[in-house]
Design a protein that fits this description.
The protein is of the alpha+beta class. It has five helices and twelve strands. Strand 1, helix 1 (about 25-35) and strand 2 (about 40-45) form a beta-alpha-beta unit. Helix 2 crosses helix 4, helix 2 (about 80-95) crosses helix 5 (about 190-205) and helix 4 (about 170-190) packs across helix 5. The longest helix is centred in the C-terminal third of the chain and has 21 residues, at about 170-190. The protein starts with 12 loop residues before the first strand and ends with a strand. Bound molecules: biotin. Biotin binds near residues 23, 47, 52 and 122.
Length: about 250
């Protein structure tokens, strides 16, 4: 019987920038230029064109937030949504430990308190080659922000750890979130059931009646479970259904 090869421990290598366009752009540039290693983390003081999902901008006031992007070069491609789930859970672990105990996950990549967004993660890949998978996981956490621009507030409600009463520094948040990310990434390979059940608990929707939007329309039902292989399981009016995670656009 072949023995499973032990995974090497993930060692982060920090690459520190001042104000840059986007840490995720810096991470992709390093992949193109060569020299990028699994576990490289590009961290910036601020970003001029920080971005979120669906082409939205990520407000990146210098010195006020964690703006970090990790290069990940796993041996095999990640299951759909696994990286986003690991990143979002690492952030959730972090902000809860730093005092935002009411924080929860919002599908697919937000960490919110009430309806206010505290953090977002963005898992991306470019020119994907399944034989040499390469990903960039961007993490933005609002730490010391006291004010947000009116244009952003017109779009959505936002908050920061400072506004929630935490005195954590950006450095505290970075250290804790990278430590949690290492743990959550290990679970992707070694303990997917733990990742799935923690993510489901983090959504705080298990057993609730939910609406799931996919490219094909909307499904309603009681949320029974979530797994990387089987997707979301719902008890719908016409019986139990499973929706692949990569189809799920919104879950509320
Ligand atoms: C989202 O909310 O849709 C995801 C936001 C991700 C923001 C982070 S900040 C660090 C990294 N660099 C970027 O340009 N975006 C991510």
């Amino acid at each position: 019987m072949a023995l499973a090869r032990p995974l090497p421990a993930l060692v982060f290598r920090r690459i520190v920038h001042g104000v840059v366009d986007s840490t995720s752009e810096r991470a992709f540039a390093s992949l193109v230029n060569g020299g990028a290693r699994h576990g490289d983390v590009h961290v910036a003081l601020g970003q001029t064109t920080g971005r979120g999902r669906l082409g939205r901008a990520w407000w990146s006031e210098p010195g006020a937030g964690l703006y970090a992007s990790a290069v990940l070069l796993p041996r095999a491609p990640y299951a759909a949504a696994a990286l986003t789930m690991a990143g979002a859970l690492a952030v959730l672990d972090t902000v809860r430990a730093l005092g935002a105990t009411c924080a929860r996950l919002k599908w697919p990549n937000d960490v919110v308190v009430g309806d206010e967004k505290l953090s977002g993660v963005l898992a991306e890949t470019r020119g994907f080659d399944a034989s040499r998978p390469a990903y960039v996981l961007g993490i933005g956490i609002n730490v010391g922000h006291v004010h947000f621009p009116a244009e952003l507030l017109a779009e959505r409600a936002v908050t920061s750890l400072r506004l929630l009463g935490s005195s954590a520094s950006v450095q505290d948040v970075e250290e804790l979130s990278l430590a949690q990310l290492a743990i959550r990434l290990e679970q992707v390979d070694e303990d997917p059931p733990r990742l799935e059940s923690d993510f489901l608990a983090g959504l705080a929707l298990a057993g609730a009646t939910v609406r799931v939007t996919t490219g094909a329309g909307e499904d309603r039902g009681r949320l029974l479970g979530l797994s990387l292989g089987r997707g979301l399981r719902l008890s719908a009016a016409h019986g139990e259904i499973s929706i692949p995670l990569e189809w799920v656009q919104s879950l509320r």
